[in-house]
Amino acid sequence: IYTLSLHDALPIFGRGAQESFARRAELLMRKYVPYREGPLRDSAKVASRFRTGRIVYDTPYARRQYTEEGYAHSGKRTHHWDRAMMGRDGKTLRAYAAKLYDKGVG
């Protein structure tokens, strides 16, 4: 999952803002990522390249869980968890980006 590159979109932003934004996006996505024992959800903390805006879920089954709709998930957990997060929490993430912009973090 590649978050909007704030650094490319708004050159005033430095890599610090991009990293902060990507970390916030990953945090908001956690409640939508399928979860049985935790490796899929937790892999993002290790495999992601937050500084460049890339959130990576690195397990052998990550792609299938993300793309296939046939899995039974409980609660808010679903396939295409980035889209689910943006649909439900996108306003929160956009507000965070605006806050970063106002602070001039970078």
Features:
106 residues, mainly alpha, globular
Describe this structure in words.
The protein is an all-alpha fold and 106 residues long. It contains 5 helices and no strands. It has helices at 6-9, 15-29, 39-47, 62-67, 81-103. Helix 2 (15-29) packs antiparallel against helix 5 (81-103). The radius of gyration is 14 Å and the shape is globular.
How does the SSE layout of this entry go?
Layout: H1 6-9, H2 15-29, H3 39-47, H4 62-67, H5 81-103
Helix pairs in contact: 2-5
Summarize the structure.
This protein has 106 residues and is mostly helical. Helices cover 54% and strands 0% of the residues. It contains five helices and no strands.
Order of SSEs, N→C? Answer: HHHHH
Largest sheet entry = none
Average pLDDT across residues? Answer: 86
Helix content: 40-55%
Q: Uncertain spans, ≥5 residues at pLDDT below 50? A: none
By DSSP, the count of extended strands is 0
* SSE class: mainly alpha
How much of the polypeptide forms β-strand, as a percent range? under 5%
Q: Tell me the distance between the termini.
A: 22 Å
Spatial extent as radius of gyration: 14 Å
Shape: globular
Number of helices: 5
